[in-house]
Amino acid sequence: MISSEAAPFAKTGGLADVVGALPAALAGLGDEVAVVLPRYRSIDLKQTRRVWDYLPVHFGPAIYTAAIYQAPAEYPVYLVDCPALFDRAGLYGEGNSDYPDNHVRFAMLARAALGIARGIFRTEIFHCHDWQAGLLPAYLRSTFALDPTYVGCRTVFTIHNLGYQGLFSKTAMPEIGVDPALYRPDGLEFYGNLSYLKSGIAFADALTTVSPTYAREIQTPEFGCGMDGALRARSGALTGILNGVDYEEWNPETDTHLPANYSAGDLSGKAACKRALLEEMGLPSDAMERPLFGIVSRFTGQKGTDLVAGVAAQIAAEDGYLVALGSGEPAHEAAFLEMQRAHPGRIAVRIGFDNRLAHRIEAGSDAFLMPSLYEPCGLNQIYSLRYGTVPVVRATGGLDDTIEEGTGFKFGPYSRDALWGAVQAAMDAYGQRSAWQDRMRRGMKKDFSWNASAAAYSLLYRQLLER
Ligand code: ADP
Ligand code: GLC
Questions:
Q1: 268-446 adopts what CATH topology?
Q2: Taking Cα atoms as reference points, which of 77, 79, 205 lies closest to residue 136?
Q3: Which ligand 1 atom minimizes the distance to the CA of 379?
Q4: Taking the complete model, does pTM exceed 0.70, yes or no?
């Protein structure tokens, strides 16, 4: 698996959760898996073992060298230590701007993975995640097409989010050592630019995305982000495999981040979690009797901030409460802070990335809001189900695939009114305590563990190797 994120090493969103959990599930099925990840500054090498001293990669006249460290885990996690490219404060950038050499950084990730496969961990499948690993299939089709090391190897490219396309100026081509002939409309070219995402789409042997509905949606102009044509051209190779979740990390019965644990059989601990969350967020204890909505999210255009802002006043007016944790684009952070400012004592917002608080919001809220514009899979609504926190979601992508009328509230159109309809339905339903608890328990019993999804990937790998 080649990825720019994997929990617990580096995380900004759900990609990290997936790459942090899928390998162990595959190993459980008998597959041998290794993960290749950049060694960012935030990753401490103390517990790791240096397994390769000198891995040189030539990009035209430039040469980058890496050492490879192996982190202790049930399966090998190889950290590509190339300080010139990865020893930085951020994963992708700092402040609100991307690093200008991201094309080189993630070309290096792909090339280091190929080196690792040559020297340390022989593999038959390169499973590449998102644009950051998208160049690897292009190297295998060009630079290494005749290299005996990789003969028979197959590539899988998983799209976690079509909105992030790894776009760079075509002048970057000579800096990444890819055959210029691949810069064409059915290759790396995307409206006059170079796209690492398009590279994965064009050159991987199999394409997957993280829910069946999103697999259909991205082949339409509405959700295709300009890539729908390229995806339709490869629709025979594209499948949707729903993400699983890691119930060891997300389980209210054992979660060590919570002030109290609880289960479907004994919900009393959930009230203690709500009480503690209200206190932590500075909301009044009156909210114990009223619906508390939770949000944990990257604050970006994908996640429906404008819709939340549109219903915030009504939630407050109808005696509801809202807690939100997130970070991201300044305009979206500002919109949440404005909601807090306008409704003190009703709406409480924390800007930042805080895994412990994310767990406490999952546990302490009554309902969870995800009014996404699009959502490839979404993990928080699945965590919410297990925590007895009723999801209120827009019926798109994985949200539509994981939430049903019996476990949550769904709305269709991307509009403030449609969200308000679902929120209001949830607030009304909250008043009927025993029906609400039945709904909570139905959600808590849902099983989205990795077993089924890992088996689907494992089968896909085998089918590719039989070709
Ligand atoms: P996405 O990958 O689009 O961000 P997902 O729902 O798949 O959405 O996954 C988001 C993951 O990131 C979840 O594990 C969520 O708890 C976590 N997360 C997002 N924002 C924060 C934050 N500000 N603090 C802590 N965890 C966060
Ligand atoms: C992306 C998507 C999210 C998905 C996650 C993991 O970041 O936005 O919907 O759950 O990847 O696949």
A1: Rossmann fold (3.40.50)
A2: 205
A3: 6
A4: yes
